[in-house]
Design a protein that fits this description.
The protein is an alpha+beta fold. The chain has a single domain, classed as Roll (Hypothetical upf0131 protein ytfp). Helix content is about 20%, strand content about 45%. The chain contains 3 helices and 7 strands; from the N terminus they run E-H-E-E-H-E-E-H-E-E. A 5-stranded mixed β-sheet has the order 2-5-1-7-6. A two-stranded antiparallel sheet has the order 3-4. A hairpin with a 5-residue loop joins strand 6 and strand 7. It is globular, with a radius of gyration of 13 Å. The protein starts with a strand and ends with a strand.
């Protein structure tokens, strides 16, 4: 089975994709309306090593309907989605959303907000 995952952060990086999935993914540009981006500091050494940074973006709901977060829709296998879940630290929770294009996809949102 394949899954659509909306990525707005480090899962779009070539090194992270190679490390997590063993291949490069082609992303389709899209956006998540009604949300805004902030940055958090992660402490997981494996995640920092893969991404090259301890500062990762995090999406939060916004009261401003004009806000949106741009990113890419990635197509993943069951195993790759499990690898993405393993990569994301506890600050993130995977939820299904409706993107600006009308596509339904998984996205990692703030665990505190879901």
């Amino acid at each position: 089975m394949t899954h659509r995952l909306f990525s707005y952060g480090t899962l779009q990086l070539e090194q992270v994709q190679l490390d997590r999935f063993g291949r490069l993914l082609e992303g389709i540009p899209d956006a998540l309306p009604g949300h805004r981006m902030t940055v958090i500091r992660v402490t997981d050494p494996e995640v920092i090593a893969a991404s090259g940074t301890d500062h990762h973006p995090l999406v939060l709901p916004s009261d401003d309907p004009e806000d949106l977060v741009e990113g890419s829709v990635l197509t993943l296998t069951d195993e790759e989605l499990a690898a993405a879940d393993d990569y994301e630290v506890d600050d993130y929770a995977r939820r299904e959303v409706l993107l600006a294009s009308g596509t339904r996809a998984w996205v990692y949102l703030s665990a505190a907000e879901v």
